[in-house]
UniProtKB/TrEMBL annotation:
GO terms for biological process: lysosome organization. This is CLN6 protein. The chain crosses the membrane at residues 20-39, 46-62, 68-85, 97-119. InterPro entries: CLN6 (IPR029255). The gene is Cln6. Keywords: Membrane, Transmembrane, Transmembrane helix. The keyword Membrane applies. GO terms for cellular component: endoplasmic reticulum; membrane.
């Protein structure tokens, strides 16, 4: 095995798993504690609503650059399942849970827009073959932005 191949494997596959699996597990555990009786259901304050955008952008970048869509979507569906389960118990999300759920939802919409925008890019299609096509931002940057000639 070439040492660069081994280093790439450790960085891209093993390293990402060791970092992102605990990260999303902690987010889910935190989310599971964000429920309150429905009568005391809270709403997100305006500053929190304004921060959903930057938070979603962070998750978009994390998922696209880290190539962890499967882990992200699994966590998102687990969060939705927990919401449905807790709703049957008469519990609803508090403002923290609403913030996290809205951030994940907007991040999913950003990911879908990103994929839709780059869907027909032949170079990125060759670089990211397979069923799940989510190009990394750095690949787009190096291909289309950095390589673009400077305006005269």
């Amino acid at each position: 095995i070439d040492s660069f191949e081994l280093l790439y494997y450790y960085d891209e596959y093993l390293g990402h798993s060791m970092w992102y699996i605990p990260f999303f597990l902690i987010l889910f555990i935190y989310f599971s504690g964000c429920f309150t009786p429905a009568a005391q259901q809270s709403r997100m304050p305006l500053p929190a609503l304004l921060l959903v955008g930057p938070s979603s952008l962070y998750y978009w970048y994390l998922v696209t650059e880290g190539q962890i869509f499967i882990l992200y979507i699994f966590t998102f569906f687990a969060m939705l399942a927990l919401v449905l389960h807790q709703r049957r118990k008469g519990l609803a999300l508090d403002s923290n849970g609403l913030f996290l759920l809205h951030s994940f939802l907007l991040a999913l919409l950003l990911i879908l827009a990103w994929v839709g925008w780059l869907w027909n890019d032949p170079t990125l299609r060759r670089k990211y073959p397979g069923v799940i096509y989510i190009p990394e931002p750095w690949a787009f940057y190096t291909l289309h932005v950095r390589a673009a000639p400077a305006p005269a």
